[in-house]
Amino acid sequence: MNIRDRFATLLRPNQIAQAHCDIPCGIYHPHIAQQGAESVERMMVLIGELGNPTDAAGINSLARYTAEKEKAAELVKHEVRILWGDYFKPPHLDTFPDLHEKAWNIMKLGAACKMGVSLDDAKALRAAVDDFADMYWKSKE
Fold first, then answer.
1. What is the per-residue pLDDT for 1?
2. What is the mean pLDDT of residues 103-131?
């Protein structure tokens, strides 16, 4: 091993660090969460309209609607976590003292929508996300 290889070995880290920056440019927006909540609600409506499918086409539609509903509910949770954790800062709590409770409620409603097919849960999720988005926009004023 030559001196250059030894030097490179000494400088090479023993562990590789992994990092992820949600939005390094500081651009935040609640629209993706709102669109996700709207998609959850729409999928719940479509699932309800299917009833109890017994044919292949109905079962296929049920599987697709369910997969999309769960994907959209997780997207809502992901986007709200970014806003909640990265955008909102301690001074915002003076203006929005219920910020943490509202974000936590969205997490619970998102989970309920993933697990079930209640249209009421989907409507509650959408309303909660819209309320959270309003808080975001008011914070920008």
1. 65
2. 98
For residue 57, the enclosing domain spans: 29-140
- pLDDT score for 19: 44
Looking at the structure of the chain, the number of domains it has is: 1
Q: What is the CATH number of the domain that holds 115?
A: 1.20.120.400
Within-domain flag for 61: yes
Spacing of C-alpha 28 from chain mean position: 13
Tens-place pLDDT, residues 17-67: 444 455 567 778 899 999 999 999 999 999 999 999 999 999 999 999 999
Q: Does 7 map to a domain?
A: no
The CA distance from 94 to 73, in Å, is 29
Query: Within a 10 A sphere around the Cβ of 80, how many other Cβ atoms?
Result: 27
Q: Is residue 80 assigned to a domain?
A: yes
If you count them, how many residues does the chain have? 141
- Is the separation of the CB atoms in 102 and 17 below 8 Å? no
The separation between CA 47 and the C-alpha centre of its own chain, rounded to angstroms, equals: 21
Q: How far apart are CA 77 and CA 129, in angstroms?
A: 10
Q: What is the pLDDT of residue 20?
A: 45
Whole-angstrom distance, CA of residue 28 vs CA of residue 10: 41
Helix (H) or strand (E) run with residue 41 in it: helix 31-50
